[in-house]
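ok so i was messing around last nite and threw this chain in just to see what happens. nothing serious, just curious
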Amino acid sequence: MPPPEIDRLRTLVRARQDLGIKATLVKNQVHALVTRNLLDEEMKEFSDWFGVGGIRALTRLPLPAEERGYLARALEQLSLLAEQEGTLQTELAKTARERADVQLLMTIPGVDYYSSVAIIAEISDIRRFANKKQLCSHAGVVPRADNSGEKVSQHRSVKTGDMVLKRFLCIAVQGMLRAQQNTSIKRFYEKKAKAIGAPKAQVAAARKLACAIWWMLTHNERFRDEDKELTVQKTQRMEARTKRVAEPTSEEHLNELGEKLIAQAPLLERLARGAGNTG
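result:
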C-alpha cells in the first residue's frame, strides 16, 4: 500500500487523466457531428477545431436545429471539463511547489510540474529500487528476452509494467524532443529512430530517461543536460498557477449539489438504463 501522500498524488493524476479521456470523447462526438452533416469542408482550415478560431467556426456552422442542440450540449460539457481542469492544475501546481523531488524532475527539459508529479506518484520512494534496472523493469521499458539453452529469442516486445509510469516517461521524451535543448536523450532517440523506427525509439529513450531519473532521485542531483533558463520559466508558470484561487469545496456547496442531483435522479436512472448499466 502506498503512503497517504503518494496515494493523494495518484488520485490527482488519475483525476487529470480522467478529464482528458472525457474531453477526447466529447471532441470525437463533435467531429462525428460535423462529418454526418457533410460540413468537414467548412472546418478544413483549422488544425485544431477547439482553438479560438475553430470554436467560433463550429458555432457558426449551418446546422439543423436538433444538431445545434447536440453541439451546444457538447460545448457545455467541454466548458465544465475546462473549469475542472483549471482547478486540478492549481492543486497539482501547489503539490509540486511543496515537493523537492518533483522540482528536481522539472530540471529535465520538456518535463513540466504535472508530468513530474505523475512520475513521482508512480515511483513513490526511490529507495524501493536498488538500481536503475529495477526501476526500468517496474516501468515496463525493458525488452523481454525469452532465452533457453543455445537458443536466443528474437522477440523484442517490452515487459508489462506500470503503464501509467511508462506513459509519462514517453510523454516526457516527447516533451524533450520539442524542447530546444540538445540533450543526450534527445540525441539517443534521434539515432535510434533511424535504426528501429520512432515508436520503439521512444520506448528506448524512455528507458534511458528512467535511468537518469533513478540517478537524480537517488543522488539528489539535477538533470545533467538541464536548460536552466527553461527550468526558471517552468517554475514561474508553476508559481503563477498556485496563485490562482481554488476554493476548497465546502459542506454547504456539496449539499447543494446533492439536493440538485436528487431532483435529477430519475433522469440519471433513465440515462443508466439507456446505456445498459444496472448500477
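not much to say yet. Residues 65-98 form the longest helix (34 residues).
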